[in-house]
Amino acid sequence: MTRISDVKIRCGHCRAEFTGAVAFADLESLESAIAAGLRETCPSCGQVVICSEKNLMWRYADGSGGGLYA
Ligand SMILES: [Zn+2]
């Protein structure tokens, strides 16, 4: 299990960055949610964002980043 924290989503419509409704504590559960079609509603523009590694960012326990932070 790879611990992650501070998962954020970048909206493809307005470029706002926001924290999703569901918190993810490890990379495996985030990846399985993405594979299952994770969607979040952007609080800035109200559009639905389909989440993928291309618009998500997170931190690992050692402080390094994943997704857009990598
Ligand atoms: Zn937006």
Number of strands: 6
Characterize the biggest β-sheet.
4 strands, antiparallel
Count of separate DSSP helical elements: 1
**How many angstroms does the end-to-end distance come to?**
19 Å
Basic shape? globular
Number of domains: 1
Which regions have little confidence, pLDDT < 50, spanning 5+ residues?
A: none
Give the names of the bound compounds. Answer: zinc ion
Structural class, please? mainly beta
Output the helix-strand order. EEHEEEE
Please tell me how large the radius of gyration is: 11 Å
Q: How much helix, percentage-wise, in residues?
A: 10-25%
Strand arrangement in the largest pleated sheet: 2-1-5-6
Describe this structure in words.
The chain is mostly beta strands and 70 residues long. It is 13% helix and 33% strand. The strands form 2 sheets. A 4-stranded antiparallel beta sheet has the order 2-1-5-6, with no helix packed on it. A two-stranded antiparallel sheet has the order 3-4. The mean pLDDT is 96. Zinc ion binds next to loops.
Which key features would you list for this structure?
binds zinc ion; mainly beta; 6 strands; two-stranded antiparallel sheet; four-stranded antiparallel β-sheet
List the helices and strands and how they pair.
Elements: E1 4-10, E2 17-18, H1 27-35, E3 39-41, E4 48-50, E5 56-60, E6 65-67
Antiparallel strand pairs: 1-2, 1-5, 3-4, 5-6
Concise account of the structure shown:
The protein has 70 residues and is mainly beta. It is built from one helix and six strands, in the order ββαββββ.
